[in-house]
Amino acid sequence: IDADEDTFWATVEAHELTGPITAELTTVDTPTVIDGRRTTTDTITITRDGVELDAIDVESSEDEAPYDLAVRSIIGDQPFTWIR
């Protein structure tokens, strides 16, 4: 990029993703083996402003807590909304 440092960072700031963060289950019950046992995983896709930030696999569960913890492991304490 042919720009001085101030121009470069001003451009980065202007294009920073600032919209709400969302999390969505994008695949469910994918067969896998964890620690030698057969189980299934679900994939959570995390997005902001329509841009995928990350995708993370979580062992399938009826409990919501592991899913929330997985999202928090990526985004920290930032607020987010589940897309159902």
Protein described:
This protein has 84 residues and is an alpha+beta fold. The protein has one domain (19-83). The protein has helices spanning 5-14, 65-75; strands spanning 21-34, 37-48, 51-59, 80-83. A four-stranded mixed β-sheet has the order 3-2-1-4. A hairpin with a 2-residue loop joins strand 2 and strand 3. The protein starts with a helix and ends with a strand.
Topology overview:
Layout: H1 5-14, E1 21-34, E2 37-48, E3 51-59, H2 65-75, E4 80-83
If you average the pLDDT, what whole number results?
Answer: 90
Widest beta sheet: strand line-up: 3-2-1-4
* Tally of helical segments: 2
Total number of beta strands: 4
How many domains? The number is: 1
Q: By helix and strand content, what is the structural category?
A: alpha+beta
Elements, N to C (H/E): HEEEHE
Q: Report the sheet-strand fraction.
A: over 45%
Distance between the termini: 40 Å
Supply Rg: 17 Å
Low-confidence stretches: none
Biggest sheet layout:
4 strands, mixed
Shape: elongated
In short:
This protein is 25% helix and 46% strand. With 84 residues, it is α+β, with helices and mostly antiparallel strands.
Key features?
84 residues, alpha+beta, 2 helices
